[in-house]
Amino acid sequence: MTVAAVDKILLIFFHWLQGYFTLAGRAFARIFRRPFYYRECAIQFDKLGFSSLFICTLTGLFSGMVMALQSLIQLKPFAATSYVGGMVAVTMIKELGPVLAALMVAGRVGSAITAELGTMVVTEQVDAMRVEGTDIIKRLVVPRLIAMVMALPLLTIVTDLVSVFGGYVMASGYNINPVMYISGLPQFMLFQDLIEGVVKPSVFGVIIAITACYVGLNTKGGAAGVGAAAKQAVVLSSVLILVCDFFMAKIFLVFRG
After folding, report:
1. Is residue 147 part of a domain?
2. Which range of residues forms the domain containing residue 202?
């Protein structure tokens, strides 16, 4: 690879990075400015939140069952199967719950946001709104950002609760009663773990919304470009979620001491 090619790649990367954080900064700056599109926020919350409830519930149920099954297999030789509830809870609430919920939502909702905005761009609806004097970021980005930041933590909580229930369903087959299962939770869980389990999906919600909106608003190439943009948004959101999860885990570990 020549120096010119490397230079071109770096220029494209930093141009994308600048545009990404510029959009994020402008979106956050406009959250508390008039006009407030309450109706649009409610519509987006319904589209992004409630429509993803089933897939998050299904993901949480089977993830909890798999976690419990694997934990029971490992704990049975040591006669420590009573700890399975705590192991499932701490693993799902701290790590797997927020990440799995975010990845499911990124695949389902992130692609939909990108396709919707991308279609508006290629059909020149966004240009028409600009001509009318409409603030595109305030009208299109901010409602989706607010809805996503509100919806994803709630979806994660549902995923966590269903996963703990799924873990009990699997554990009940190993003669573990509800009292024994629940008593293992406080032995593994701390209050900071609950805070971590809510903060992470809030950050992931920002990543999904900003990534999907940025890619969607920069779509080019007609119908084929919309499809490519939707795929790009899902891949990029998923990678950013996993990278961000690592650094946030390190930060929380420092605060834990």
Report:
1. yes
2. 24-256
Whole-angstrom Cα Rg for the chain? 21
With respect to residue 12, please indicate whether it lies within any of the assigned structural domains: no
pLDDT surpassing 70 at residue 83: yes
Burial of 44 (0-12, 13-18, 19+ CB in 10 A): buried
Q: Does 14 fall in a domain?
A: no
Residues in the chain: 257
* Start-to-end C-alpha separation, the chain: 45
Which residues, 6 or more positions from 130, have their beta carbon under 8 angstroms from its beta carbon? 136
* Other CB atoms within 10 A of residue 66 CB: 16
Task: Report phi then psi at 177, rounded to 5.
Answer: -85, 165
Asked if residue 18 is part of any domain, the answer here is no
Closest CA to 152 of 64, 248, 237, 45: 45
- Number of domain units in the chain: 1
Residue 257: per-residue pLDDT: 59
Structure confidence by residue, pLDDT tens digits, 166-214: 888 888 877 788 888 787 777 777 778 888 888 999 999 999 999 999 9
Average pLDDT over all residues of the chain:
86
CB 165 within 8 A of CB 157: no
User: What does DSSP assign to residue 35?
Assistant: P
